[in-house]
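User: Predict the full complex structure for these chains.
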Amino acid sequence: MSSTVVETTPKVEPQVEKNYLNADHTIKSWLLTTDHKRIAVLYLISVTVMFFFGSVAAALIRYELTAPRGLLLSSEAFNKTFSAHGVFMVFFFLVLAIPATLGNFLVPIQIGARDLAFPRLNLLSWYLYTIAAVLVLISMFMGGVDAGWTFYTPLSSTYSNTQITLCLVGIFISGFSSIATGVNFVATIHKMRAPGMTWFKLPLMIWSTYATSVIVLLGTPVVAITLFLVVVERAFGFGIFSPELGGDPVLFQHLFWFYSHPAVYIMILPAMGIISELITCFSRREIFGYKFVAFSSMAIAGIGFLVWGHHMFISSQSVYQGIIFSLISFIVAVPSAVKVFNWSLTLMKGSVHFSTPMIYALGFLGLFVIGGLTGLYLASVDTDVHLTGTYFIVAHFHYVMVGGTIMAFLGGIHFWWPKMFGRMYSEFWGKLSAIIVFVGFNFTFFPQFILGYLGMPRRYHLYYFAPEWQVYHIMSTLGSSILGIGFVLPAIYLTHSLVKGRKAEANPWDARGLEWEYTSSPPITENFAKTPVFRGKVYDYDAVADAAKYEGEIEPVIEGKGRTNV
Amino acid sequence: MSDHTHHHDDEHDPVYFQYEQIDQQQETYVLGMWSFLVTEVLFFGALFMLYIIYRWKFQDDFYLVHEQLNWKLGGLNTAVLLFSSFMVAAAVHYAQKKRKTQQLICLGITLLCAFMFMMVKTKEYGDKWSHHLIPNKAFSYGEHHGGGGELGGQGEHAAVLPNGGKITLASGATNMGGEGASHDEFQYHPGNGTIAPQPREKPAFLKFLDGVFAPLDMPEKEQHGSPEHARLFLSLYFLMTGLHGVHVLVGIIVISALMILTIKKAPTITDYIPTEMVGLYWHFVDLVWIFLYPLFYLIPK
Amino acid sequence: MATAQHDHSHSHHIIPMPVLIGNLVLLGFLMGATIWAAQSLPAMLHSSGLPDAQISLIMNIVALTIAFLKAGFVIAIFMGVKYTTKLVKLYAIGGFVWFCLMFIMFADYATRPMEPVHGWEPEIPSALPRNTSEIPD
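Assistant: Here is the predicted structure of the three-chain assembly.
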């Protein structure tokens, strides 16, 4: 992006001095806020902290694997390290990083509402998350857990003697945090849209967030109760999954993956929403096939619930059911592919601007395609028998989770940073770190595909029986160091921009959407000076940015309402 | 934040800051409550799924264990909950008509029903406790139960005495030792009934319930069937009715809170919606019990 | 508050008291029916000469049908779903529909014993149907 674009931007809204950030400076005003934007900032800080802990665990894993007999950790410590990595990253970063930060910030603004439907519930959700995170951190520092993030029974329920009970209670509570956010988003998106903001004028970010929220509502309670059952088995000696009572440990896996496979879509769908926004903005084109992208989100949410068994092909699940799950798993690839094709066709004939967010978006495209296509090997029963439980699967889901979700998260943070904090970051450092993340990521995880194909099992820290794998492990560890730099850089220059950054205009990217065209940067506490009436088209990049299409005021509703006096 | 404080000052404005109209606000709250209930349905749904699968596998043994449950007490609880469900619906009815006294009376009766339910539940759990049917360390299940044990006076420790047919896990090799693991501490009576513990004395504060519910007592049945499957069944029983009981307790708290806020004319109670939401929650508690009752207390042979 | 809005806020359906009472009576009747069925129906069916397996099936169907009827009346009348918007109806039903998805698990438990693997017993002693007795110790 260059200044030329900025100059064409009409001054939609004069820069207001008061905004949600400087409305009140006391700590109490932050900790007891019900403003969705402030809660988004609180969440941003929390998930960054949890991401840091998860990253430290990841670094330890990579360092340990550099030598065939390990360098640092005992077997028990290694088990606890990869479990901690999984728990932090999955339950406390990936499933909520985008919805709770960018989603919280954007949902009301993009649909033209003053706040989420239930602001106090939103705050409660953050507190639940914080309590859960603290409990899990305590459990990790009191000895950790060694059952992996999946907590398969009977290891977790019977044999392990680590801090599993406390950790699972933490995860159980974080489930309610997710549910609170999901309830809020569903109610908000259904009922709080501004006049004229019909379903097919919604930004695709909203469609994705809606689909995500529906999955959260339908899936999270199942995993919450399943993990709670393990707690009950450990704490009280109830036997639910114990084979010696005739119970079936595989039933735990069924119930666990009933949520945890859709949870993969909880992680990736908001990322897809962000990518739809970024690609349209920086291609200066309306998205290709809006309805296909929108409905594919819903299709993924629906079909995603029917494929959980592909995690269990070798778990003693019935072979016949495995075949059916395999078939449906191939089907769920279709809506994801629809999105990728639509993004590619949006890029075609677009006027592509290589700004920082766009580099992340393009990185996402490539990595997600690799992650998705390698998923097909794992969806097919016969190849999965060879590849499951190896580093192939580790590489696959890191391509989707890190290459997909985290790339999109970083892209989204860079895209909406001016809107969230009213400051521009250094474009040079932004682009540089985007490229570093992309390069480092591929260096880290591509060798793992090869390792997995060769047979390196996941969750092992010794491979002295096959020292020829060391070269791939060293590549991977080197790559992860680069990736680490790529993650540290944004933390530095984004924080720096808060103090020293150039003040951002209302619409620095010349993007379309209520949040860009109708709010200041950063927005005021009520988001909009007047309730917007949406009269334009969504992603109308052909038209010049024009405040007039949002102008107008709905009929005066109730005395003192409608922000007319702000 | 200070920009819109005037909205908070206005206590009688029923429309919250983020809404445009009262209609929108009310519909949003109802939708939000229903989407929360969706999560509750799936929360219990997972447990029902467990139950269905195990019952399908062990229909015969589950039938034999379920005879240990008192279907009369369960039936009483069903009636109590159905009636309370009606009462809370009536409370919503009166709240919509803005007849506060009747609304509070209905909520009060609902609250009484909730306490009644918990009393019956306490009596049932107490009976299970004294018969060693709670699936913890003291669990014991076998043919000679109910007829007075040979080892009278052994009390609760008799149940954990090792006996010939005890089932333990293959410990040692797989168990890493230490205190976290729990299962290897449990032993199950195989059903030969050589050592049958005496019924335990209930705590004194629970004894009065025996008198209250004496007409509904049922003769003790002999314990038949596999003790392992009995333990599975009773685990599910305590888990599902226990979580349901937790929901009843939460219901007691929210109904009391609603009553207090309504009496105090709190600014958060501006229309019938809080009553409606509490009502929806309470109906859901009733719904769960509607399924729990036939599934646990009325198993066919 | 404008009068127009005031009228509007009362557009929500107030369920008449006779309907609520009728529903309670109906639910009480259904509760009685389910207890009666559990206590007396098996003996009646037995005397009519049905095999035990069928009686068990019939009893399960009867008990669950009554439970679903009761649940349906509570949801429709007491919870007011009959009178609400389509959206709320969708969410009210959605949870139960989604719960049914979990029955896919049954495909697993039903077909596990069918696997054509030599040495696995067709008779299953537990929900974990593998015959582990042949594993050498």
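Chain A touches chain C through 26 residues (CB under 8 Å).
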